[in-house]
Amino acid sequence: MLIIRCAACKRKLWRYDKIGPGEVLRCHKDRIKKIFGAQIRDGRVYCSCGKDIGIDKGSFYKMIAKAFTYRGTKRNS
Ligand SMILES: [Zn+2]
Hints:
By secondary structure, the protein is mainly beta. The protein has one domain. 0% of the residues lie in helices and 51% in strands. It has strands at 2-6, 12-16, 26-28, 32-35, 38-41, 44-47, 52-56, 60-63, 68-72. Strand 6 and strand 7 (52-56) form a beta hairpin. The chain starts with a strand and ends in a 5-residue tail after the last strand. Bound molecules: zinc ion. Zinc ion (ZN) is lined by residues 6, 8-9, 11, 47, 49, 51.
């Protein structure tokens, strides 16, 4: 499980069940386990500090590179 954080203010945004070793380019909504400081507004994802984090693409959020950091473990299957 990964903790996704805002790169600007370091707030926790959500907990994400990442499958596979690749970079986090998208966050699939059905694998977001708990939302902390993120807000969805007009099809975009914001941190509560106002920073742009991603774009709502329906079943997933397309993440904006460098807007977030993460730590934790990815799983293989
Ligand atoms: Zn923030």
